[in-house]
Amino acid sequence: MKGYWVCIYEKINNFEKLKEYTGKAKPAIEKFSGKFLVRGGKNRTNDGVESPRTVVVEFPDYDTAVKCYDSTEYQKAHNILKDHVVRHHQLVEGN
């Protein structure tokens, strides 16, 4: 079964830091064969907290999704976001 990252942003305090993060996160994700299915774009919140941005990344399997998140390359990118965004990031297994 495939693995997915589902990331729902609640608040973005610094768009420049988000841009810096994406520049470093994308190559790390692609190194682990991650494929972006959703990156921002038009959205509508039907229930829960309003979100300015949603990202969904597909990986070949759940273990690869975990390895990518835990990788040194991705963690360097992830650290850029500290104190600049509030988000819910979840790894899930699916079809």
Identify the CATH architecture. 2-Layer Sandwich
> Can you count the helices?
3
Could you say which structural class the secondary elements and strand pairing correspond to?
alpha+beta
Order of helices and strands: EHEEHHE
As laid out across the biggest beta sheet, the strand order is 2-3-1-4
The major sheet is characterized as: 4 strands, antiparallel
DSSP summary, beta strand count: 4
Which descriptor suits the 3D outline? globular
Per CATH, the class reads: Alpha Beta
What proportion strand?
Answer: 25-35%
Would you give the CATH topology? Alpha-Beta Plaits
Instruction: State the helical fraction.
Output: 25-40%
How many discrete structural domains? 1
Overall radius of gyration: 13 Å
Low-confidence stretches: none
Spatial gap, N to C terminus? 6 Å
Describe the structure.
With 95 residues, this protein is of the alpha+beta class. Helix content is 37%, strand content 35%. Strands 2-3-1-4 form a 4-stranded antiparallel sheet, with helices on one face. The protein is globular and about 30 Å long. The N and C termini lie close together (6 Å). The model has no long low-confidence stretch (mean pLDDT 96).
